[in-house]
Write a structure and sequence with these properties.
The complex is a heterodimer of chains A (about 230) and B (about 240).
Chain A: H1 13-19, H2 21-46, H3 53-65, H4 75-105, H5 119-122, H6 124-143, H7 156-164, H8 167-194, H9 203-229
Helix pairs in contact in A: 1-2, 2-4, 2-8, 2-9, 6-8, 8-9
Chain B: E1 3-10, E2 17-24, H1 33-47, E3 69-70, E4 73-74, E5 95-99, E6 108-110, E7 113-114, H2 117-124, H3 146-156, H4 163-167, H5 174-185, H6 194-207, H7 218-222, H8 230-244
Parallel strand pairs in B: 1-5
Antiparallel strand pairs in B: 1-2, 3-4, 3-5, 6-7
Helix pairs in contact in B: 2-6, 3-5, 5-6, 5-8, 6-8
Classes of the chains: A mainly alpha (about 230), B alpha+beta (about 240).
The structure holds protoporphyrin IX containing FE, iron/sulfur cluster and FE2/S2 (inorganic) cluster.
Keywords (chain A): Membrane, Transmembrane, Transmembrane helix
InterPro entries (chain A): Cytochrome_b-558, SQR/QFR_C/D
Protein name (chain A): Succinate dehydrogenase cytochrome b subunit
């Protein structure tokens, strides 16, 4: 009946994907999900602080010796750092390029303005920028120790307590974690939609999972500065 | 009913436009929104003014021509086309804002009329099946599973009105394009061109300058034909499979 018209495969697969809005969005979704996966483990690691200085400091040491002697000291950690950097850059660049395009596609606003979409959906761009700035501050504070008053190597407990003894550090951290919760609330479900994993039956459960993940991560992360502020951890 | 209308007036594609205020009286609640505009236009013509230009054709909700944004909502407060929207959904004394679809891919031609030929070019890039025409095929030559037929019907309901683009904060045409892709790709008749169809139609959509999808869901809320948001996920899945596979 029908004739088969198979057009040849495009010359460069990845470049073509990157050039299309759907492909670029898929890059955003995959990098976002990888960061999300990392954050789940990062949060669990952070909660070690409630078991006392020895536990979390030992955990920090363990992280650095992971994979030894096959790998050398801190090698695996650096592999993760490299992967995360790729994710942050890919996520940020695709977010920036798509946002530029989206704004250009709708140059004139309606005279009659109406509240659109949910708060989480509307704050993806600014929330993302807040998260990006937070990541920079966070690395300078607790990774390099540049802006940390104590900055002891392999002593995260002391560094964290010192950092959160400053009110502005707590405020920024808590604000960023609220932004993170909102970002994941829209982002997790959105990523499923972008990668084609959503359908009428799954939709409800994906939204539920997005809310659950968002709540779990923000509460888990925020518990640490709160514990320092209220003297539970000192 | 007496109403105050604030309507976008723009003499031509490059002319500057503005919201202009008009009063209309003697509007029956049984009139459609277009009939209400007809009443205004008769008055304007009698006065020697330019009537408000707007698109319309079938006036029965199936052609998709009558797009306009009413009080910030594509096709107004009811989930239907403007021609099927009745004045009983407004109150006497209301002020109603009427604007054209806003998207750079849909430039304003005049007043409320926009150029939607970008949609035609997306259709031209893959919104068809390749089959010999001239003689009707045997009715049962190609069996279609019931579920596929239902999905195809649901998506074939799209009338290409462009409300999805107008409602989207990114001026994205993803809902429209996904309606067409899903409609044809689910059918056995569409199967041979499945992969090139989705790739070409997404490329055509991007070339027209529509924005990307941020999954706000405004399109599906505005769609008079109820094309679901998850159809975009289905198109994404087929696009990624076609591009990677
Ligand atoms: C560098 C800072 C960041 C920026 C600038 C940023 C920005 C954005 C933007 C603009 C979107 C698209 C929103 C939309 O489509 O409405 C997005 C989506 C997303 N973000 Fe981020 N974000 C950042 C950090 C993160 C982090 C740390 C995570 C990890 C949890 C994350 C996870 C996601 C996910 C899963 C999506 C969904 C992708 C999709 O819609 O398909 N983002 N981000
Ligand atoms: S998807 Fe719905 S809103 Fe968009 S063009 Fe088709 S019928 Fe109109
Ligand atoms: S005039 Fe045809 S759908 Fe309204």
């Amino acid at each position: 009946m029908t004739t088969v018209t198979r057009t040849g495969r495009p010359p460069s697969l990845l470049l073509n994907l990157w050039r299309s809005t759907v492909g670029k969005k898929a890059v955003m979704a995959v990098s976002g999900l990888l960061m999300l996966l990392y954050l789940v483990f990062h949060m669990l690691g952070n909660l070690q602080i409630f078991f006392g200085p020895e536990e979390i400091n030992h955990y920090a040491h363990w992280l650095r010796t992971l994979g030894m002697p096959f790998l050398r000291y801190e090698w695996l950690l650096w592999i993760f750092r490299a992967g995360l950097t790729v994710c942050v850059v890919a996520h940020g660049v695709s977010a920036y390029q798509l946002s530029r395009r989206d704004i250009a596609a709708r140059p004139t606003k309606y005279a009659h303005q109406r509240q659109r979409a949910t708060y989480a959906t509307r704050t993806m761009r600014w929330g993302g920028v807040i998260l990006g700035l937070f990541v920079i501050w966070h690395i300078l504070d607790l990774t390099t120790g540049t802006v940390n008053p104590v900055a002891e190597h392999e002593h995260p407990y002391q560094n964290i307590v010192a950092s959160f003894d400053r009110w502005y550090s707590c405020v920024f951290y808590i604000l960023a974690m609220l932004a993170l919760g909102l970002h994941i609330r829209h982002g997790f479900w959105s990523a499923a939609q972008t990668l084609g994993a959503n359908n009428a039956r799954l939709n409800f459960f994906l939204k539920l999972a997005a809310n659950g993940l968002a709540l779990l991560l923000s509460v888990g992360f925020v518990s640490v500065p709160l514990a320092v502020m209220f003297g539970v951890v000192k | 009913m007496n109403l105050t209308l604030r309507i976008w007036r723009q003499a031509g594609p490059d002319a500057p436009g503005s919201m202009t205020t008009y009063q209309v009286s003697g509007i029956s609640p049984d009139m459609s929104f277009l009939e209400m505009l007809d009443t205004l236009n008769e008055e304007l013509i009698t006065r020697g003014d330019q009537p408000v230009a707007f698109d319309h054709d079938c006036r029965e909700g199936i052609c998709g021509a009558c797009g306009m944004v009413i009080n910030g909502q594509a096709h107004g407060p009811e989930r239907t086309t403007t021609c099927q929207l009745h004045m009983r959904h407004f109150k006497d004394g209301d002020t109603i804002d009427v604007e054209p679809w806003r998207a750079s891919a849909f430039p304003v031609v005049k007043d409320l009329v926009v150029d939607r030929t970008a949609f035609d070019r997306i259709i031209g890039s893959g919104g068809y099946i390749t089959a010999p025409t001239g003689s009707a095929p045997d009715a049962h030559a190609t069996p279609v599973p019931k579920e596929a037929a239902d999905t195809a019907f649901e998506h074939a309901e799209c009338i290409g009105c462009g409300a999805c683009v107008a409602a989207c904060p990114n001026g994205s045409a993803m809902l429209f394009t996904s309606a067409k892709v899903v409609h044809l790709n689910v059918l056995p008749q569409g199967a041979p061109e499945r992969s090139s169809r989705v790739r070409n139609m997404v490329a055509a959509m991007d070339d027209e300058g529509f924005g990307g999808c941020t999954n706000t869901g405004e399109c599906a809320t505005a769609c008079p034909k109820g094309i679901p948001l998850t159809s975009i996920a289905a198109m994404n899945r087929q696009f990624l499979r076609a591009s990677l596979g």
